[in-house]
Write a structure and sequence with these properties.
- This protein is an alpha+beta fold.
- Helix content is 47%, strand content 22%.
- The protein has helices at 4-43, 46-64, 79-97, 172-180, 184-212, 267-276, 294-302, 305-323; strands at 68-72, 113-117, 120-125, 129-138, 141-151, 160-164, 216-221, 227-232, 237-244, 255-262, 291-292.
- The chain has a 6-stranded mixed sheet, with helices on both faces. A 5-stranded antiparallel sheet has the order 7-8-9-10-11, with helices on one face.
- Helix 7 (294-302) packs antiparallel against helix 8.
- The chain is elongated and about 85 Å long.
């Protein structure tokens, strides 16, 4: 004879464990949201705005006084060109240090040149500094501008990051330590990739929130948007979406999990089904188990988030009908 009470207790224990895990997760997300608000406030402090405004004016002045702007593509942007930029910076600093020295008069380096490489503008700033302005965009529309100023004291010393307006949650110091001393060009490119990927991920989330906000119940994300989770409530089931990106230069997620939870699932139904299901002892009733939406995961893996969301919603009714037949 089968002891159904034991199975009932087993089911109740699992429900209690799930409730505890859910409350722990909610508490963790509340703490994340609180920290996000604090960090956002830090980003908007007056000192940060002052740095941006000062650097923006300095870059605008440098471009206004330029005698030539050179557009570079492919192999034109290389270590040799960066060495030339450093040489210009040092010669300009030497010229200003000795204003009466006429030996600089015929130098071709007296011309002020800026370089445009993809989304980067590179120019020589006063005081032995090289300025990089990153112009981010999304779907062909311009977004934020960021700055990074490198100090080049001499060819015998490595360049360092003097100041920047890059969001603090992007690892610019790690990139400086890993790349700048050994490959300055790679460092400059990598920072541009970090910024553009961050803007891409952020804007994708913004678009689905604006277009489908009435269908999305809860939405959480990390500061660099490399972890995103949201819930779809406006359907015959609850769909949870979890996205993880391999690194901070990724624009498509690599770890994806999409689960459909029947709305009829409840503690009472779970316990009742466990009590009446005499044959499936130790097995969850099939209509209470969440179903994995593989087609949705495939879409998120290959499409932008707004495109994938539209694809998911379009095919969701048919997928739910197949998984949870009436």
């Amino acid at each position: 004879m089968v002891d159904h009470t034991q199975y009932l207790t087993f089911g109740q224990g699992i429900i209690h464990q799930d409730d505890t895990q859910l409350e722990t997760t909610r508490a963790r997300y509340k703490d994340v949201i609180r920290r996000h608000a604090e960090l956002t406030e830090r980003l908007s402090r007056d000192s940060d705005k002052m740095i941006f405004e000062r650097l923006q004016k300095e870059f605008e002045a440098a471009r206004a006084s330029q005698t030539q702007e050179i557009f570079l593509e492919g192999e034109d942007w290389n270590d040799g060109l960066l060495a030339t930029i450093r040489e210009r910076v040092h010669m300009e600093a030497d010229r200003k240090a000795v204003p009466g020295d006429s030996s600089f008069a015929d130098s071709s380096f007296l011309g002020k040149v800026t370089y445009k490489v993809g989304n980067k503008v590179i120019c020589c700033l006063e005081g032995g500094r090289i300025g990089i302005q990153y112009e981010t965009s999304f779907a062909g529309e311009p977004c934020e501008i960021y700055h990074c100023v490198l100090e080049s004291k001499s060819f015998l010393e490595k360049m360092t990051v003097l100041e920047h307006t890059i969001p603090f949650f992007l690892p610019i110091r790690e990139a400086e330590n890993d790349l700048l001393s050994s490959n300055a060009m790679k460092f400059i490119d990598h920072v541009g990739e970090l910024l553009q990927a961050y803007v891409d991920r952020r804007e994708q989330v913004r678009i689905i929130r604006e277009l489908y906000g009435n269908q999305i119940g809860e939405l959480y994300h990390s500061l660099p948007y490399h972890m995103v989770e949201f819930v779809l409530d406006d359907f015959d089931c609850k769909v949870t979406v979890s996205l993880r990106y391999a690194n901070l230069v990724s624009v498509l997620p690599t770890r994806i999990r999409v689960l459909a939870w029947p709305l009829s699932t409840s503690k009472e139904e779970f316990v009742g089904s466990a009590h009446t299901n005499r044959k499936a002892i130790g097995v969850f009733p099939s209509h209470l188990i969440p179903a994995r939406l593989s087609y949705a995961e495939d879409a998120l893996r290959t499409m932008s988030l707004p495109e994938a969301y539209a694809e998911i919603v379009l095919n969701l009714p048919r997928a739910l009908e197949q998984m949870f037949p009436a």
